[in-house]
Amino acid sequence: MEASQGHIYSAFARWTTASYLYAPWILLAALLTVVTCTVYISRNLGMNTDTTDMLSEHLPFRVNTKHYNKTFPQEMENLLLVLDAPTPEQAYATADLLVARLKEDPTNFQDVYAPNVDAFFVRNSLLYENIPELERIADHMANAQPLIAHIARDPTLHTFASVLTGAIEELHKGRILELGPLLNSLSATLNARLAGVPRILSWQTLFRGEPQKIRYQEFVMVKPRQDFTQLFPAEQSISALHVAATDISLTNDSPVQMRITGEVALADEELNSSLRGMEYAGTITFVMVVIVLFLAMRTIRLVLAVLLCLTIGLILTAAFATAAIGHLNIISIAFAVLYIGLGADFAIHFLLRHREVLERGLPARGAMYEAGGVTGGALMACAITNAIGFYAFIPTDYSGVAELGVISGTGMLISLLVTLTIGPALLRYIPKRPETKSGTKVSLSRVLEISFKWHKLTYVTIFVGLLAAVTLLPQLRFDYNLLNMQDPNGKAVKTFRELLAEVENSPWHADVLVNNREETDRLVQSLTELSEVKKVVTISDFVPVEQEKKLSLIAEMALTTGPIMLSTPSSVKSEQVSIKQRKALDKLSITLDRFIAERPDHPVLVSARTLRNSLATLFDHLNKENIKDRNKLLHSVEEDLLVTLPTSLRRLQTAIEASTPFSEQDLPTSLSSRWHSQSGEYRVAVYPAEDINDNEALRRFVRAVQQVAPQATGAPMVSLEAGEAVVQAFVQAFSLALVGIVIALIILLRSVKYTLLVLIPLLLTSIFIGVFTVLLNLPFNFANIIALPLLLGIGIDSSLHMVHRSRNDKLVSETLIHTSTVRAIFYSALTSLVAFASLMFSSHQGTASMGILLTVGLSFTLICTLVILPVLLRTSTQELKL
Amino acid sequence: MRILLEIKLIFHLLIMAAMLLYLPASWAQKPDTTSPVQTVNSLHATLLKGMREGDKIGFQGRFKLLAPVINRTHDLGFIAHTILGKLWTKLDREQQHIFIGTFHKLSISTYAGWFKNYEGERFEFIEKKTIPRNQILVRSRLIKANGDTVSLDYILRQGKEGWHIINILADGVSDLALKRVEYRSILRQKGFPVFIDMLKEKIALAEKN
């Protein structure tokens, strides 16, 4: 043991001394290497932001997804445009315009799909209604036909008013007319205009005899072109989409609003929110790190030395990443984070130890020899154990993290080399004046001394902590809902959640691919029986049932309605027109008054009274205005009331022209290709009964569907299975790392006892972190789980340094806490803490949770290594003495 | 010269071929007594005749004059059926029979009541249009002596004995729509006997006018 210790000691001592002596050459060589590497990186390092390849493609769910995406390529990587409009006509017209405009740009939009706008579905829309509903619409149309016919012949405000006057008179005489809805809609439109929040009248809802809802939606599915060599792959397509929207006057203040969501928009928003403000956070973090380093080093030059070591190491590691992998992914880009955390740790340990040796009054060369020797051994042990921790990810299914493992593991070895080569070389240029003991040194040691006085309390605390862990750890969970990682205020996320909550057409649903018809029918039946399933959709659901019966009802409706001719009103807006309008409105008001007075028990009375009041308010406004504004107001009212009439009539005429039944073969390809692939496979879409934004609901839904259809895929399956794959990958990697580290420690330390002493603080830290994630309700997720390797690394480093120091120098714990090792552990953990604490304030929930986890984790690491470990070490050395 | 002769011969042949091709077409275009426009024209002609002789022959005379023409030009059975829609199937055979009979009478009476005397009115054909489901729309208008017009659009469908009117739109307002709302609501709310009484009342009213 002593021999190998001595061997390692002298090797590192000689290496660092040589670096110190040949400093100019070393630094020149470093400079040249850094320049070469920078050029190499900038020319060759790519970016792969495609998250689909993050998990091994051999996983069953990945195989299912891959097959599904190959079979129905239109369904993957989409943008979902949600158009919100006050009337169905506006929603439809906007969707129609938008689809036409987007189709003009096939480079940015590979596929544009809006089923409701498709001519086929407009023509056959009535066939998709059920028979009672069709009968109701037929009755309603018959009822409204006379009014519509009259207004269509002269679609002007005065005709509208006089037709209504006539209708009220008929009603008065006792004729049966369903006038209520029309009067109500008219009042609502007038009131909205007078209140300054205009809302146009929907004739389509009037035709169908439905009350006008607050909002109507149309959906457009767009498959954008994505460039995965860019950090924001869909950036160009999304901005092209905004341009297209502006082109068709779909802006922030238009009555129709467009919201962008869907897989691609969510990913884009996620990247945006996690990177937004990074420059500010970066600057603040940098300043904070420099302050902490200054507190540790007490001289700017040493701080600069740490930063230089970090920079050189980062560049070398990036160069390695370029050579070994060629690209960075969303996760492996975090190597920089890990490197800064652990690289700073190495440099701080070396530099502080060097200073400690200097303070003992050794000459420069001797000090370098000793510092190199003692830290070299400790740092090598750290680098090896850390590298094992990171390399443990290589065999897992989480290839995103596996790449991170390769890069960071090697980064640790690079860091060791840089610290012990560049560090000594830089020290040559730093004056070696003896330091006075700083305030923090003293106060830090004083705080730590308390733990010795209360060592029994320390044990009790550990015991209580472990008890708490036993009860709380089973509640440890992994949040696989990707939406929960995003900024909850993001537009795409909000819209997506809204759609999920509406359940009916949840954008998250399961898809099952089936080879033939019979199997499809069987599957539909067994899936429909599940209580977790709301509905099951296949291509046959787009072929309406009872078509003959419906067509005869539609024929009846068409005949009864007749060909309503719409004339274009003259666009003259003279004073005379306004007078005519006012006269007609006055007459309507008077007729309403008489009706209200003479038919007080009529069912339409309430509606009549409401309209009379609205008209009275309108007259008030008109009387107050000057001629010009009066004409303008009347013109606006006319617009509000009649602008949708032409579109609605056209759509109605088209819908009642449907006269031939159709089968699956007649469905438009844009639809059928989404349900029946060219390879002959059928898609069965399974919709959840609950809002599966909730993890438990999602799990229930996924498991239930998988019972019936193991080959099911879709976003719910992917997020649950990916979550489990990630958890499994981490469990596997950590187990492997633990075994590897134990073996490495036993080899390096040649002692089971010291190996255990290194591991105990690490295990305690892990347990306490687990407890805290339960207490803080901060489950692990795809983002914060990346923090675990860093915590593992710093945890091992810290306790290894402590054990190493205590053992090599045969120090009792009371002395140990006054050494540079303790300060190095404290400041290197503090450096990482301030470096990553700022992540807590990120609007991206995943990043923020990573910040919290790192902060909590590093604090526990400090407590476990600086408070608990010395107590354990003391107990063990006391035992030795006995 | 020979060439000229031959050209003349070919020319003749061509003319003959053209005539042969043309003939069937012209035969097809030969006025057909049951064409949609003819159906409407014969209705209009009878209405005018009834109006001219209106005062002389009285309501009953006009009824007798119009009845066969209306029966021939309208598919009253189909109209009655369409008006009631689903309610038609809820009537028993006898009720259906009673309704058809009363409806016939009412339809003729309405014409006889409306077109009772002549004050210089004339009908004018506007256009004929094919509409979906093999139906034809014949648009026309009634021009009164003072120049006022009422547009009359007829929807016709082909039956075994030619084209029959199945809906009339006066100034765009559908006769079927008006009757459907009125008849169905009374039939639904008050029952069959009251419904038939209401129809009879209307017949009496037309006669009184």
What does this structure look like?
The complex is a heterodimer of chains A (882) and B (209). Chain A is mostly helical. Chain A has 33 helices and nine strands. In chain A, strands 3-4-2-5 form a four-stranded antiparallel β-sheet. Chain A has a three-stranded antiparallel β-sheet with strand order 7-9-8. The longest helix of chain A is centred in the C-terminal third of the chain and has 37 residues. Chain A is elongated and about 115 Å long. Chain B is of the alpha+beta class. The longest helix of chain B is centred in the N-terminal third of the chain and has 27 residues. Chain B contains eight helices and five strands. About 8% of the residues of chain B have low confidence. At the A-B interface, helix 6 and helix 21 of A face strand 4, strand 5 and helix 7 of B.
Tags for this entry?
heterodimer; A: 882 residues; mainly alpha; 4-stranded antiparallel β-sheet; 3-stranded antiparallel β-sheet; 33 helices; 9 strands; elongated; B: 209 residues; alpha+beta; 5-stranded antiparallel β-sheet; 8 helices; globular
Question: What's the arrangement of secondary structure elements?
Answer:
The complex is a heterodimer of chains A (882) and B (209).
Chain A: H1 2-21, H2 23-44, E1 46-48, H3 60-71, E2 79-85, H4 88-103, E3 109-113, H5 119-123, H6 131-153, H7 157-173, H8 180-194, H9 203-208, E4 216-224, H10 235-247, E5 257-261, H11 263-275, H12 278-297, H13 300-324, E6 327-329, H14 335-359, H15 364-391, H16 399-427, H17 439-453, H18 455-472, H19 491-501, E7 510-514, H20 517-528, E8 533-537, H21 547-561, H22 575-598, H23 605-624, H24 627-642, H25 645-656, H26 669-672, E9 682-688, H27 695-708, H28 715-749, H29 752-775, H30 787-808, H31 813-816, H32 820-837, H33 845-881
Parallel strand pairs in A: 1-6
Antiparallel strand pairs in A: 2-4, 2-5, 3-4, 7-9, 8-9
Chain B: H1 2-28, H2 36-52, H3 54-73, H4 76-84, H5 86-90, H6 93-114, E1 122-131, E2 135-143, E3 149-159, E4 162-170, E5 173-174, H7 175-190, H8 192-208
Antiparallel strand pairs in B: 1-2, 2-3, 3-4, 4-5
Helix pairs in contact in B: 2-3, 3-6, 4-7, 6-8, 7-8
